[in-house]
């Protein structure tokens, strides 16, 4: 059963009692822990003293109104979902509040079914962001950005969602297959003012080149052989919503030009048409390709890259997050315990060691599949080595034998060897490219966020190489 720590804020005690009654009678599947406040200031004081899942708050109140309290609450803890209650005459304020970070609003007098629907959707939106935090996203290209875990990461993820809900910024999500790129896009959409619009996803690598323009922009009847009727494209389907362009690196150059024009002018022409269609679609793009290298090779346009890369989000591969594997495994164990009604509560030390020594080419998605498979074949109440697939049990283990072919004279320890060689490679690449980050990314074929993290990890001063010729 979901448990919601809920704060009801209104200067009318009768209305507070009415809302409490609605919550408890319409949603028996949720266990509400409820407190009350009569002013915005009192609500803010309570939020600062403890954490809350949900705040249901009136707009018009003495001392501090709901809009002022909303801004202060979201600033203090962006994880708190705020739903505003407002009279019909104040709907303009409520619409503005959603742009400022409120999850939604409900009109007074409060309709029980509508309030229940909003609360359930807010729970789904919260779960999306919580799942997103498992991917340990890094939100910028900055050398100073850090990997953080646990509560800090969760707060950082909610803070990003809160910032993104205020703007229609284009987002570029980068990471290997299985790291959760579409999950990020869905979390952004369903926590934004666009959540009532459509979320439309398209895989740019799965559609034949000849059909891509029609898929994105639609076509008129008779535009080409086989166009027997008019077709609405993905941009129109996602109007007032979000268009998720997965594998954007697979777009051919002529389509890159057309996409760039839509991003710049907010309008497009369907294939075979002579009318321009305006679009209010928000674009979220994703790729597992090294776009810097593609730009250097002339296969991806620089102007399109900078249009897309306004808010870069990077999802690190699981092999770089070995310390997170135990927590991730436990998360999936809890998830599948509920789904499969099995009383599996943990994982054996040997099985966990095996998971940690595996390379995880499929990343978090592969780990989730491995845990679900284990639920099907495991007979005990803890996941054992025998319930892991052969691909993991028989995977070759990395050893320190590789040191024999390299001029390495440090301790016979694979991790020490690997780090020394990694640092040496990065220093050599920076030297060869005169300390220029983007050029190093392209020439050394190393993902930009990986390069920046390694520079920080090894304390490399990029400026030391900027003057080398």
Structural description of this entry:
It is globular and about 75 Å long. β4, α4 and β5 form a beta-alpha-beta unit. It is an alpha/beta fold and 469 residues long. The relative contact order is 0.08.
Helix residue percentage: 40-55%
What's the helix count? 19
Stretches with pLDDT under 50, minimum 5 residues: 142-149, 399-405
* Averaged pLDDT: 87
Q: End-to-end distance, in Å?
A: 64 Å
Radius of gyration, whole Å: 26 Å
* Main sheet record: 5 strands, parallel
Report the β-strand fraction as a percent range: 5-15%
| Neighbour order of strands in the largest sheet | 2-1-3-4-5
Count every beta strand, where a strand is a DSSP E run of 2 or more residues: 14
Bulk shape? globular
Structural category is alpha/beta
Features:
469 residues; alpha/beta; five-stranded parallel beta sheet; globular
């Amino acid at each position: 059963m979901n448990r919601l720590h809920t704060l009801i804020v209104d200067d009318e005690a009768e209305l507070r009692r009415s809302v409490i009654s609605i919550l408890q009678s319409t949603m028996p599947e949720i266990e509400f822990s409820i407190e009350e406040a009569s002013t915005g200031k009192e609500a803010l004081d309570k939020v600062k003293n403890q954490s809350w899942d949900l705040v249901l708050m009136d707009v018009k109140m003495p001392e501090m109104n709901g809009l002022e309290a909303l801004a202060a609450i979201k600033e203090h803890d962006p994880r708190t979902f705020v739903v505003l209650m407002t009279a019909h005459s104040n709907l303009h304020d409520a619409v503005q509040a959603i742009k400022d970070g409120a999850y939604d609003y409900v009109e007074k007098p409060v309709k029980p079914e509508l309030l229940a629907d909003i609360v359930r959707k807010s729970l789904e939106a919260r779960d999306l962001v919580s799942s997103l935090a498992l991917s340990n996203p890094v939100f910028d290209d900055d050398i100073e950005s850090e990997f953080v875990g646990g509560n800090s990461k969760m707060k950082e993820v909610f803070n990003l969602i809160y910032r993104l809900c205020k703007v229609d910024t284009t987002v570029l999500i980068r990471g290997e297959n299985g790291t959760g790129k579409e999950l990020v896009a869905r979390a952004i959409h369903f926590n934004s003012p666009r959540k009532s619009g459509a979320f439309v996803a398209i895989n740019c690598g799965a559609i034949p080149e000849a059909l891509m323009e029609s898929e994105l922009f639609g076509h008129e009847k008779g535009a080409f052989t086989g166009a027997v009727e008019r077709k609405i494209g993905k941009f129109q389907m996602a109007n007032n919503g979000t268009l998720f362009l997965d594998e954007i690196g697979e777009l051919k150059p002529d389509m890159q030009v057309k996409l760039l024009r839509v991003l710049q002018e907010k309008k497009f022409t369907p294939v075979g048409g002579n009318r321009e269609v305006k679009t209010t679609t928000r674009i979220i793009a994703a790729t597992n390709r090294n776009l810097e290298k593609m730009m250097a090779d002339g296969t991806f346009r620089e102007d399109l890259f900078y249009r897309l890369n306004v808010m870069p989000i990077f999802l690190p591969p699981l092999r770089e997050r070995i310390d997170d594997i135990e927590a991730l495994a436990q998360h999936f164990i809890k998830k599948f315990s509920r789904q499969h009604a099995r009383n599996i509560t943990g994982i054996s030390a040997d099985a966990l060691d095996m998971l940690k020594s595996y390379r995880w080419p499929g990343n978090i998605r592969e780990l989730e599949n491995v845990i679900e498979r284990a639920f099907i074949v495991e007979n005990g109440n803890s996941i054992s080595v025998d319930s892991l697939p052969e691909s993991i049990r028989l995977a070759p283990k990395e050893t320190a034998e590789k040191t024999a072919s390299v001029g390495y004279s440090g301790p016979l320890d694979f991790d020490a060897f690997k780090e020394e060689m990694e640092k040496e490679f990065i220093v050599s690449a920076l030297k060869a490219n005169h300390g220029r980050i983007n050029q190093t990314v392209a020439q050394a074929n190393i993902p930009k966020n990986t390069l920046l993290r390694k520079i920080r990890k090894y304390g490399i001063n990029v400026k030391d190489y900027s003057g080398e010729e």
